[in-house]
Structures are given as C-alpha cells and as structure tokens.
Specification:
The chain is mainly beta and about 270 residues long. It is built from five helices and 20 strands.
Length: about 270
C-alpha cells in the first residue's frame, strides 16, 4: 500500500503543470513590469495580456502581441467570431483581421468584415462602423478597396472617376461623381437603427457646387438640399430649400441604439 502511494505521489510531482485557464483573468510579471488580463504571453522581455475573453495573444517575431475585437463585433458574431491573426515584417507586428504587410508596414482590420489593401508602400484599412454590425449582425456585406493608381479608398459603393476615388462608410451609403467633385452620403447611426435593412437607397442631385445626396432631395433655382432620413422633408421658401428631420431615435430600436452608444429617447421602439 505504501509503495503504491509513493508511486502515485512521484508521478503527480513529475507531471508537467497544467496550462493556465484562458477563461480566467490573471496577472503576470517580468522584470518588474506587470500585465493583467486573459491569455497572457511573454516574449522574455515583456508580458502582454488580452483585455477580453475573446482576445488573443501570441509571440511572433520575438514580440508578445495581443488583439481584442471590439465589443460590438463580439455581440454580432457571438460564438461564430472568426479567429484573428498576426503578421509581421521587418520587426513590425500587426494583429486583427485581413492583415496585410508591405514595405515595413503591418496593418490589420479590427473586424472580420474589414479590409486592408497595400499600394505603393502604404497599407489602407477600413472597418464598417458599429451601427452596421448592429443592423446586419455577422452578415455585413464585404467592403472593397479601389484605386486609380495614385489614390486608394476602401468602403462600400465606391466611385472611381476622373474626380478621384471615394467610398461610403455603410452598405446603404452612396457616392456620386459629377462636375469635378465627389460627394458621399451615409445615413446616421440613428437612422440605421430606425430603418435597418429596409432603409431606402439615398438619392443624389446635382447642385451649384456638385452632387448633393440624401433623401427627399428638392431643387429650386439651381440649389439642392436633401433630408437626412426618409421621414424628413424639404420645402422651398424665397428661392431657398429648407429641410427638416424628426429625431430618428424615436423610431429606432433601443437595443440597436445602445449598441452604437446612443441613448434612446421617449417614444423609441422597445
């Protein structure tokens, strides 16, 4: 019996320590520098820890690096959140999604729906804003990057014309190039929360100084003005166009408003 107990004790003491639980926050220290969080990693000189359970840390090119996805991304994807990545070049590390390296630069998008593109030694990244994830969830349309050889722009519904390159920031945004200028219009976060995927496509009309975009656009005496939401209105008085929009927050989903950091007001949808 004693021999058996001694054998079990010896095996227990000889067994390698269990790896730390990544779901439990901890603090680690090296050379007097302390870092606290999740999934901590050390490169021998420093310790880095993720600040959320969904964050990831790794040691790449001799450097400890961590990435935490934004809270609105975690909410949108839930358990289906894709794994992030890290890339390095010339000692520069970038972590996130769709990472791109080029000529000593390493950049990544902060969301799975983001994009990065390299051109002429520069890396351009774009991420849809929080309101887009609040409306589309994990089904956010893929953004794009376009270039005319000199300029690059990333986003949605991009325009590549002699006037330049521009992109909208949301899938329902529009860009219009005409008469030497480009105008892009995106509905406000409150409007996205109010109309969601049923939001009508904005329109653009040519004014004195170039395209003007929005909703219910009205023209008078060469001047154009548009409302910012489908519920808005535009009227002509004394050769001028005046527009008004009721607060979109009154029609918006309260949970959506909270997700984008806006407070619901009296009359908001529950």
């Amino acid at each position: 019996m004693l021999a058996t107990l001694m054998t079990v004790l010896a095996l227990t003491l000889a067994a390698p320590p269990s790896p730390p639980d990544a779901s439990t926050a901890t603090c680690r220290s090296i050379d007097g520098h302390v870092s606290c969080g999740y999934a901590c990693k050390s490169d021998g000189q420093r310790v880095r820890c993720a600040q959320t359970l969904q964050g990831r840390c790794t040691v790449i090119d001799g450097q400890a690096s961590c990435f935490d996805p934004p809270a609105y991304v975690v909410k949108a994807y839930g358990a289906a959140l894709p794994e992030s990545e890290c890339k390095t070049i010339d000692g520069v590390v970038g972590c996130g999604y769709s990472c791109v390296t080029d000529f000593g630069k390493a950049k990544c998008a902060r969301t799975p729906a983001g994009v990065c593109k390299a051109q002429s030694g520069n890396v351009t990244c774009f991420d849809p804003p929080a309101a887009v994830f609040a409306v589309y969830g994990k089904q956010v349309p893929r953004a794009q990057c376009v270039s005319n050889g000199l300029q690059m722009a990333c986003g949605f519904n991009c325009v590549n014309a002699s006037e330049g390159v521009r992109c909208a920031k949301t899938p329902v945004g529009v860009c219009k190039a005409q008469n030497g200028s480009i105008t892009c219009f995106d509905p406000t976060p409150a409007a996205l929360c109010a109309w969601g995927r049923t939001l009508p496509t904005p329109q653009c009309k040519l004014g004195e100084t170039g395209p003007v975009c929005g909703f219910n656009c009205t023209t008078a005496y060469g001047k154009v003005a548009c409302s910012g939401t489908p519920a808005g209105m535009c009227k002509v008085f004394d050769s001028e166009v005046y527009c008004f929009d009721p607060p979109a927050e009154q029609q918006a989903d309260a949970a959506c408003l909270a997700a984008v950091g806006l407070a619901a007001i009296d009359g908001a949808a529950p």
